[in-house]
Description:
Elements: H1 3-16, H2 20-38, E1 48-49, E2 60-68, E3 72-81, E4 86-95, H3 98-102, H4 105-122, E5 132-137, E6 141-145, E7 148-151, H5 168-178, E8 185-190, H6 192-201, E9 207-213, E10 217-224, E11 239-243, H7 256-263, H8 272-277, H9 279-295, H10 316-323, H11 338-370, E12 378-383, H12 385-389, H13 393-405, E13 412-416, H14 420-443
Parallel strand pairs: 2-5, 5-8, 9-12, 12-13
Antiparallel strand pairs: 1-11, 2-3, 3-4, 6-7, 9-10, 10-11
Helix pairs in contact: 1-11, 2-11, 4-5, 6-14, 7-9, 9-10, 9-11, 11-13
The protein binds alpha-D-glucopyranose.
Amino acid sequence: MEKETLNFLEDINGLFYLTAPDARDIMLRFHKEMGLGLAGKESSLKMIPSFVGRPRGNEKGNFLAIDLGGTNIRILAVRLDGEGRAEPLAMSRYPISHEAMTGTGVRFFDFIAGSVEAFFKEHNIEAKRLQNLGFTFSFPVVQSSIASGRLISWTKGFSASDVEGEDVVELLVRALKRRGLGFIDVVALINDTVGTLVAKSYNDHICDMGVILGTGTNAAYPEKIERIAKYQGPRHQDEMIINIEWGGFNKLRRNIYDETLDASSFNPGEQRLEKMVSGMYLGEIARLIIVDMIKEGLIFNSPIPEIFSQPYGLTTEHLSLAAQGQISHELGFTHMSQTDKDAILEVFRIVSNRSARIAATAISAVVTWMDKKIESNHVIAIDGTLFEKYPGYSQNMETMLADIFGDSAQKIRLEKEKDGSGIGAAITAAIASYSKNKSLIARLPWLRHR
Ligand code: GLC
């Protein structure tokens, strides 16, 4: 590789590399923001009470779930055996069209209800036997109960009109009625991070964090109720899961590429951590660096592939495939010199490694918030394609944990929780319908004797 190219890459590495002292500094800022968020004060971490705690593992029955928040919507029927096993009886996945994401809210919710209807038909399910539904809606929503909440603002490129500020359960219920599915009772509304934590802790009581590393990124953890100063609702249990919305954390060192990406994004100034970490953005950060290398004449004597000239043309999937050696033709690698390829792969490595190291730092912040000296074991349930599919990603996270904590890092286990967000919605529906019945019994004492 030419000396100039090597120098350029070294500079880039300097801009993107996160050291252990950097991480410790970030953790302190994170704790400060967590405290402010829990107190209801100005903070880049929303710290949203979910109105639900971790399950006991004995929740039982068949439940419906909608899981929405990435590129697909998933509808599931889940059986809970009451002994910690949750088994999907049926599941369908439907891609969310650009029109549904960005059109009117009515169209968006009609699409959701239409997907439920298609699911019933596809699996030949006698609809009325499955009535209680858990709704995973993976956006920042301020909840007012376990089954209601208003969308604060869209993230991840969604923009359907007339939804921000509205109760998304009400909008869903209306759309279900329009489809003749009014018999469905939407008993729970949760975030995907809450779902992931709930799904894992259904059979693993050590689990105390749910994390998503996919199109977006975020996490949830159980908090002691008395520490949630802003929470005014009923206090039936000792703990409540908090949806951190860590994608919004804005106390990270940013570089010129982060600023450029943010300035031309649909939500400038928001979701700053998400823009440095999640699958929606890594390809674009890498592309911006490569465009600079092209401008400086460091790579490409041959024609420049299209993918590098279109904003968001380069996706995280391309990065992931290239890292697996499945060099994609679209990257133009077939006509490229070995040194150009190496330079590009190094850019991909730098960008994805920063993502993994920030994710591990944020996890470390939450773990030390719960357990300052890491005296207990912690299982972190993680879902999302970045964690699941990107080669070396989870190892890079583990390296960062070891850099921060040394040997104690072994007490923190990162575990994949596939489809946790949907299954967690079904388990939460079970918790919610159970407490609904309980309050009904309390109000109508004669029911107790039946
Ligand atoms: C975005 C959403 C958040 C969600 C995350 C992962 O950050 O705002 O609610 O949990 O993406 O899907």
